[in-house]
Specification:
InterPro entries: HAD-like_hydrolase_sf, HAD-like_sf, HAD_sf. It comes from Natrarchaeobius chitinivorans. GO terms for molecular function: phosphoglycolate phosphatase activity. Keywords: Hydrolase. This is HAD family hydrolase. The strands form 2 sheets. A 6-stranded parallel β-sheet has the order 5-4-1-6-7-8, covered by helices on one side. It has a two-stranded antiparallel ribbon with strand order 2-3. It has 9 helices and 8 strands. Helices cover about 40% and strands about 15% of the residues. The protein has 2 domains: about 140 residues, Rossmann fold; about 60 residues. By secondary structure, it is α/β, with parallel strands linked by helices.
Length: about 210
């Protein structure tokens, strides 16, 4: 059975949904043109899926200014095209049946998140949604997680909660906020280049059943 929790928090990209590779490749091609630097398939994969943790640190390691990169990246993302090329993982369906408050904590920006949720038809799965910004903080910072917990009215009252995500930042945010962590490994340990720990480690949410 799915573990019993008083509330659930979930990441979005790579956890509940993913996007066709052709879209990712095209975006990185256009961003590369703007920055005067091409991105290999591996580099695009690493950044898109956050395979090495902090994307900003990875950009800096490659000699790319994060602010310049993200400005170009967001300018080149078309919300409607992104939504059309996004698909829902079959094993994510359990979220619709959760009998508990459910929150979304995602790094996906609001101008992209809303069309994606509408396209895959899961907007009503969540009681509270938060798209991280510089103001809210970014996972693994617990601040955005704690903000959603506050809005769900489950903070600081003994409720037992969990955060499920596909990256180390999600696990870190869960633990930093005092929650259990479910890591769903969508890309595989070999492609990620490391093993991500969690209170639960699964390749599909079906394994929780």
């Amino acid at each position: 059975m799915v573990p019993e929790y008083d509330f659930w928090l979930l990441d979005l990209d790579g956890t509940l949904v993913d996007v066709e590779w052709s879209y990712t490749r095209e975006v990185f091609d256009r961003v590369g043109d703007r920055l005067g630097r091409s991105f290999t398939d591996r580099e695009a994969d690493v950044l898109w899926n956050g395979l090495t943790g902090s994307r900003d640190r990875q950009l800096e390691a490659w000699g790319i200014d994060p602010t310049e990169f993200w400005t170009a990246f967001h300018d080149e993302e078309d919300p409607l095209v992104r939504a059309e090329q996004t698909y829902l993982h079959d094993d994510a369906a359990f979220v619709a049946d959760l009998d508990a408050p459910v929150g979304l904590v995602t790094h996906c920006q609001e101008f992209l998140c809303e069309p994606v949720l509408e396209n895959v038809g899961i907007g009503d799965w969540f009681d509270v949604r938060l798209c991280c910004t510089e103001e809210t903080g970014w996972k693994p910072d617990p601040a955005p997680v704690e903000r959603v917990m506050h809005d769900l009215e489950v903070a600081s009252n003994g409720h037992r909660g969990v955060l499920a995500g596909d990256g180390a930042n999600d696990v870190g945010a869960a633990w930093n906020a005092g929650l259990d962590a479910i890591h769903v490994e969508r890309v595989g340990h070999e492609r990620r280049g490391q093993c991500v720990l969690g209170d639960y480690r699964v390749q599909s949410f079906d394994e929780l059943g």
